[in-house]
Amino acid sequence: MIRLLPIFLLTLLPGVMPLSAQTFPHAYAAGERPQDHRLGDLRTLNDDHPFHKVATREAWETRAVSLRRQVLVATGLWPMPTKGNLNVVEHGTVTREDYTVSKVYFESFPGHYVSGSLYRPKSLKRGQKVPGILSPHGHWTHGRFHDHGEANGKKEIESGAERFASGRHPLQARCVQLARMGCVVFHYDMVGYADSVQLDHRQSSMAADGLFSTRAELRLQNMMGIQTFNSVRALDFIESLPEIDQDRIGVTGASGGGTQTFILGAIDDRPDLLFPAVMVSTGMQGGCVCENASYLRIGAGNVDLAALALPRPLGLTGADDWTVEIETKGMPDLAHLYGMHGCEGRVEVFPYLQFGHNFNAVSREAMAGFVNKHFNLGHPEPVRERDFEPLSEDELSVWTETHPAPRGRGAAHEGALLKWWEHDSVTQIAAIEARLPNDAGARSAYEEVIGGAWDTLLGRRLGDVGEVIYTLTAKEEGSVGLRMTGTLRAEGHDEEVAALFLHPGDDWNGEVVVWVHGEEGKSSVLTQEGDLAEGPLALVELGYAVAALDPHGVGEAAREGAVINDERFAGYTFGYNYPVFAKRVHDILTTVGFIVTTPDWDVQQVHLAGMDALGGAIVLAACGQIDDPKLGKAMAKLDGWRFDHVTSWKDDAFMPGAVKYGDVSALAARCGEQPLFVVDDKSGWETATSVNPALVIRETFDGEEVLRWLAD
Q1: Radius of gyration of the chain, Cα coordinates, nearest whole angstrom
Q2: Where residue 639 sits, what CATH number does that domain have?
Q3: Domain limits at 523?
Q4: Count of domains in the chain?
Q5: String of b and e for 639-666 (b: at least 16 CB within 10 Å)?
Q6: Are residues 385 and 485 in the same domain?
Q7: Is residue 434 part of a domain?
Q8: Which candidate, 182, 273, 401, 632, has a CA 20 to 30 Å from the CA of 4?
Q9: Are residues 564 and 706 in the same domain?
């Protein structure tokens, strides 16, 4: 059916130059750039990270589901690694006046050990049920063995931060206090601290392809994930103890231990109380590799992640550090959210701004009071600490002659752990894929695991685009139809795309082909002489309109700043900023969103064409994010390209997690039964073909065949 050209396309708007008056096909005048926040400075962990407000309880519940998945995906725990037998070893119990301390270690990953100290009340009776508390320690020197030293201990007492000489051992002090209150406490090591000797905390032991490498990032294997899974397994351990009351399990730690506290609360419903000290704020979000991971804080900050504790009791402390403004920035939002859910009084902040970064006696007593109140322990308030006899390093260390430290460590251990982690993930996903041809429920499971992961990786669906404002900047009549340049602005996202529209005029068939070239952008539709290239010309002659654009980083959207903001670890950049590839998918969604919602156009169908390897991958990714009946067919010219070929964080195609979640074949599978034409090697597409009978794969590109397929 032939449609009349919309009137606004036929008339040259006042002030709009013909294309011949500028360098075709530019949408901007010389010296101008897109008004697009993505071309500015990248976000960092030190920027302001305010809570993202929600208007209703329902809006929070929806956001909470997405945030939990985001944390799990970012830490490499989606799907959760298979849990084996903990193989718990408890030995070397030391007895004090009113509590005992045992040495404990167990396996989290196969061959990888979590070590720590288990504090119990000495008065514990057989059959008695008491609260269990996990205590991750944070970045104090020597971790669980930390000692302020005699001189610093005296200064702490003089300042009012500590009451007793034993306070020079503040990590032991909080465990002793909780045990004296009637709790069982597991104080466990962060990776690379104290008895955790198998991996370095901040760097890989491998020459290549270890932690922090591009290969690991493509599979979302990171230090934060290892540490978070250790915490999950620590929770499994303490929950398994017969004396633990399953309805009174808490977690408390400070600084990096505070990060572990609220992250565990974010992904696991079993903790009944969270008390992250001197960590949650709108300021600095955590400076260590164990506190950062790609995707973790895109569109969220620590206040948002801590809010996932809702409706459980959540206690926070502030100090003269990055948490100094927690009373006015963060806490009001948490209080409002808790109040919205009828949970007033379950979130509290204890700002002790006279002290620096700490978990000192003053803060510990606030924590003890919080636990006392919410776990109904019945101790008189305020709960005060008493002096104690600290354990020596020998008394604390779990490794002895009869329980020697594990031999697996360094590069060999790191390689084995990463290999197991990858194999486990591949096995879990393959089990779902194997069911796809014959099991209707498998499709739902596949979309939850793989589709959910890609929703996190890409961060936007067509319905999230919002209003798109089109500004026509130039127009001319060509030898075939009209050529128009302009800008598409996704107002709600502060993003802008330079676009070139080719229109056949009165012969328009009501369909649009969005032309995507990852390297050349919209200039790829033209020859060097400025004429239409063969492919776009053929489409226009057949009655199709063509929309070509400059995706982020290409053509008029070229970046002037850096692609990454920190050379040490990808998570410092991509934990706060979407990868370039995802930003380009966003631009496709903006373009499609404009086309399908513009009344004047009355578009019947929108097709996508990826005309180079990167453009093809972008098209496949975009298809899975579009739920609109006007989406027609898609063509992806991959020619053997895979995300697994990417070797640098600076590559525009670098996409953390892309290999873990099935690479380009999984992107095709997510498109359901949408007609797809893929130019690629025929191997590796089994999953996609099992769910999409309309998938056509050709090893070589034949433009005439593609046109026939499109018109069919």
Answers
A1: 29
A2: 3.40.50.1820
A3: 460-711
A4: 2
A5: eebbbeebeebebbbbbbbbbbbbbbbb
A6: no
A7: no
A8: 632
A9: yes
